[in-house]
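Board notes (copied after class):
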Amino acid sequence: MSQSWIMIDYGVGNVFSLMEALKRCGIDCTLTRDSQLIRDAKVILLPGVGAFEDAMNQLRKYQLETILKDKRDDQWLVGICLGMQLLYEESEEFGKHQGLGFLKGRIVKFVDPSLKIPHMGWNVLNQNQQSHPLLKNLQSDDRVYYVHSYYASEIEQKMLVASSDYGVDVPGIVMNDHVIGFQFHPEKSGQVGEQLLRNLKEVCV
């Protein structure tokens, strides 16, 4: 099997800063929608910004939904920001929309009227699993950068690696077997974000 990292190119979001952050962490990643490269990859990155329904439609447009759902058990799938939300079963963003279904749970909107929406800016990343390898060399008060109006709810707590408080416990990092999600933007999270990407590199072996 190839040892390559690929990033899904499905026309959603600016991926340049994420590609540059990966490069700084010693990760050689190829941006592609080529089905064979995806099937051969060691790690599949699913980025994304924007609306859930639009993103799923783009995946279907390029026949990528089926390819992702057929991934091998030994392949890693890593969703970032909207990409993490797509990993769940369902989203209520502008109606109900089916996701990829790799993780149990629903994507719901912040409802506290006292909160500024979107949740944008730096927030403390609370370590729900302090010994988890994805949190290696992180401090308890480290902050990461979020930009989102919806979050994962009704998730399985055993999958929750780290979270942030924004009126509710926002899942920041989740993991189940070979599926990982980051709700925040590691590429916009400075040295903490780069440490997380280096940890990701060590985990995805």
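Comment from the instructor: The helical segments are 16-24, 35-40, 52-61, 64-69, 82-86, 190-203. The first strand starts at residue 5 and ends at 8.
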